[in-house]
Amino acid sequence: MRILGPVDVTVDGAPREVRGRRRKAVLAVLALRAGEIVSTDRLTEVVWGDHAPRTAANTLQHHVSYLRRVLGDRAAISVRAPGYVLDADTDLLAVQRLLDQSKSEADPAGRAAHLRAALACWRDRPLVDVTGHAWLDEQAERIAALRTEAEDALTEVRLALGEHAMLVPELEWRCREQPFREHLHGQLMVALYRCGRQADALTAYQRLRHVLGEELGIDPTPALRELEAAILRQDAALDLPGVGPASRAGVLLEREHELSELTVAAREAVAGNGSVVLVSGEPGVGKSALVDAVRGRAPRQARLLVGCCDDLATPRALGPFRDLFGPRLRAAGDRDEVFEVLLGELTRPTVLVVEDVHWADEATVDALSFLVRRVASLPVLLMLTYRTAGPLLQRLLGQVAAAPRVRRFEPAPLSAAAVGRLLTASGLDPREVYAVTGGNPFFVTEILAAGHLDRVPPTVVDAVLARLDRLDGGGQEALAQLAVVPSTVEPWLRDALLPDGVAAVVAAERHGLLTVTPARTGFRHELIRRAVADALPVARRVELNRHVLAALVARGGVDLARVVHHAAEAGDTGAVVRYGPMAAEAASRAGSHLEAAAHLRLVLRQRELLDQERRADLLNRYAVESSVIGDMGSAVQAQREVVALRRGLDDVRALGRDLVWLSLICWRAGMPELVCGSSAEEAVALLESAGDDRALARALTHRSGLLSILYRTEESLALGERAVALARAAGDQEVLAHALASVGTAQADLGLAEAWTTLAEARQVTLASGSVSDFCRFTVNVVEILLWESRLDEAMSCVATALEMADGAGELRYLNRMYTCRATIAVEAGDWDQATADAELVAGARPPANPPTRCHALIALGRVRARRGLPGAQDALAQAWDLARATGELQNIGPAAVARAEAAWLRGDEVVAAELEPLHGQARRLGVRALVAELAYWLGIAGRPVPAEDSCHPHALLAAGRWREAAKRWQQAGCDHWYAVALAESDDPGDLAEALAIFEGLGAHPLVARVRARGIS
Fold first, then answer.
1. Mean pLDDT lowest for which of 663-677, 795-809, 866-880?
2. How far apart are CA 85 and CA 33, in angstroms?
């Protein structure tokens, strides 16, 4: 049980949300008295105060039953007269144990570890989401005081450990928040003094003295006055043992907070509590300096590994990890083996730094996402530095946001005062340097190294070029050659490019332009490399890139992405065409589909060098890669060109296969059925006589799926059964899995008894194939059937399995569909926070999810916002409506129309019958029973009732006035919202009170207001 923040529960380390304010209040009371009997009278008094309804006892039982389900253990809350007992651990009990351990710990570092662990239990203000209950508010104040006690104790220990420089910004902030706490101000004075800031320490005392006198009319305590006197006389007792005034200054200016947090994070990692640190900012602001500072602050047990992403035109797949774990990663085959290698390497305490993640390839981002989701249980501090976040990095940052422990730093430029301190005794004018550099630390240090400003034009980059003038002609030539390589250079490549080898770069290293190690040679900063490269004439850059290309090709076995990059920069179109497809294939195998598409795009710019068949093959590969990354416009255009080329070739099988792909890609792009269907029909017709049963089975399966979407169920079933027979005969398990799923879906739509037997076989075959994408597609079909049958728990279980598979395999591109499925189920199950989180993730995904997926995510988001009376509902549903109509498919248009009708009703607006009537007619003709029932209900609300359907669907029952039967069905299904909507049709105060309690728990404010308007409170 967790009450040190929002009230919730963790089971096996995974958070489980508790829905409903009063349910949280019940859990909070039990958690605060864990192990003790809390009477029902006491619970009722705390939760409802003087306004308990007559049904409070029954509602309390309902709340306890719900909490047991959340806990997954009925025995966790047991009945003991005259109330209940919670038998579970709480974060508050954990804090009290840790504080007791810290008091008995003799070693300061060990004591600090206990105190940090205790403070890490706090996630926000205690009981932050159950305020307004008098007794709980009192307990929150008591627990807050416990936190203050722990913070003060940790500060004392950190001062004893010599962390005064890191403490200053934290203590300054706390003093602003708590201006009357003298002990806190005393700690700040000591920290400032130990940093060599005696005047600032005395100013802090005078500031406190003024505030106490003005606000409270009192003077500081004698202890604080004595501390002021000790600072004035520079009492040696204030210094740490063995530390004199000369050693107080820090290495990095104005980075105390970041250094403190990094030190804490590294220690936590050694203790097994991994975390993520994000460092973002402009070039030269000091991201790499923070990385260097970690070396001296990480515990001795932790190793430091630093990998970098390179500024290649098309990045290397897994570049930073290949640099760090090269031999083992080269032996790894698929992505699962790569992830296994990474986990194996990170079982010991490690600070893993990946720099310049904004240049990362898709496979690296997938690997980082994999680590981010597991870092909390690893002894690892994962530190990522980056500049501006593009779409690929934004996807990673979305994963990081869900990690349990995340620290974000955005180092600011140095202040004018800090620049002045750096330039002391340099003879340079600090004001002029600050004006030119804007406080960028790298630019400031470059000008300091140059020793003058007289040759610096408006851009500080010229300060770098000015230092190049100190090199002789050979040194400048060597630097120019290395500058066209956007990564560090291995010794073999350096020796191949520079006739004099390492001797050619000695002067550049001496002048601080290069860093040379036995393993690598590289520019000390990326800005230096860019300054040199950008200053080269274009013809010279082309020539130097040709040298690099020749060396890479002669070497052999190098990363093909590097070869393609330098081929493109050298203008060698033949090399681009030769190596680009191989680089794309390698990137695709590694999961870097963005890079694969980029390589193929580069090759296809030279399509005039390709024959017709080769061009068609590469365009097809490009279409597939573009589809995977969500670039559906490029995918459709490329595949259409493929089909046009195939028509000019004498290869019916290839044309048939490519028509299937065109149909599939058009459907994923949300294009109307006419486009998808015509391609699929032509594919089937061509392949019927082509003698390729495997290709025909695939085409029939795809066509069956399209007919199912159009609710042409009997036709879908017939084609699916043919596909099953062909796939079995051909031994094609992938096509068999798809075909069985289509057949099972059609059988379920027709109400045939064998449907679930067929779907069970489809599931078995799909799992045996090991294809995560196929299992996700299968799950979408099954969830739709389970939702129609109101089997929400089974639907959620199916999605959970698919999500786990996709997440474990790092198949992030399929997660959008599963998140949308979970959001749709969660809307019905009343788990609206989960629905919102999933729907917002998909709606904001970059690149965007495909139109059908995004449409249903927006429907889920709009329904929750409408039901809670939140802004943004109309906008979300308007976007969903536009997407749905663009697809032309009833499976998208129908749910969007129903959601818009409900939102209008909740706002008190008129439900537009003209929007619903044609859809109702279409759904009746096609036999879409669930949609018919929902549309009929909302037409009744709109004052345009339609003839009653012979249906047991709850909406049909509710439309017919049989609200009690509808309520029973929704209650059995676990649909709390609709159960309460049905109860609200009653005139019985007990039914209305129960409906009100459910609406309040869900946060359904519009319906809460309607029930209360009927005199229920």
1. 663-677
2. 8
φ, ψ for residue 306 (rounded to 5)?
Answer: -125, 120
CB contact at 8 A, 896 and 880 = yes
Q: 707-734 pLDDT, tens per residue?
A: 887 888 899 999 999 999 999 999 999 9
The answer to whether the predicted template modeling score (pTM) of the entire model surpasses 0.70 is no
Rg for the chain (alpha carbons), in Å? 33
If phi over 0 gives left and psi between -120 and 50 gives alpha, with beta otherwise, what is residue 591? left
Tokens 């065409």: give the residue.
Answer: 577
Count Cα atoms within 13 angstroms, Cβ side, for 880: 29
Pairing of strands 380-386, 275-280: parallel
Could you give the angle at the alpha carbon of 438 between the alpha carbons of 436 and 444, nearest 5°? 70
Question: How far apart are alpha carbons 85 and 75 in whole angstroms?
Answer: 10
For 791-841, give the DSSP string.
-HHHHHHHHHHHHHHHHHTT-GGGHHHHHHHHHHHHHHHT-HHHHHHHHHH
**pLDDT the model gives residue 860:** 97
How many residues would you count in the chain? Answer: 1017
User: Is the CB of residue 508 less than 8 Å from the CB of residue 532?
Assistant: no
Q: What is the DSSP letter of 869?
A: T
Measure the CA–CA gap between 204 and 175, rounded to whole angstroms: 10
Residue 201 backbone dihedrals phi, psi, to 5 degrees = -65, -40
Q: Comparing C-alpha atoms, which of 677, 681, 655 is closest to residue 666?
A: 677
CB 483 within 8 A of CB 472: no
Query: What mean pLDDT is predicted for residues 264-290?
Result: 87
DSSP code of 514?
E
Rounded distance, CA 363 to CA 121, Å?
Answer: 34
CB 224 within 8 A of CB 186: yes
Nearest one of 580, 496, 486, 563 to 530, comparing CA atoms: 486
Which residues have a Cβ under 8 Å from the Cβ of 484 and sit 6 or more positions away?
533, 536, 541, 544, 545, 548, 566, 569
Report how far residue 816's alpha carbon sits from residue 843's, in angstroms, rounded to the nearest whole number. Answer: 9
The H or E element spanning position 377 is none
| Residue 895: exposure state from Cβ atoms within 10 A (0-12, 13-18, ≥19) | buried
Structure letter (DSSP) for residue 79: E
Residues 6+ away with beta carbon under 8 Å from 327: none
Determine the Cα–Cα distance for residues 446 and 147; give it in Å rounded to an integer: 45
Q: What is the DSSP letter of 2?
A: B
pLDDT tens digits, 683-694 = 999 999 888 899
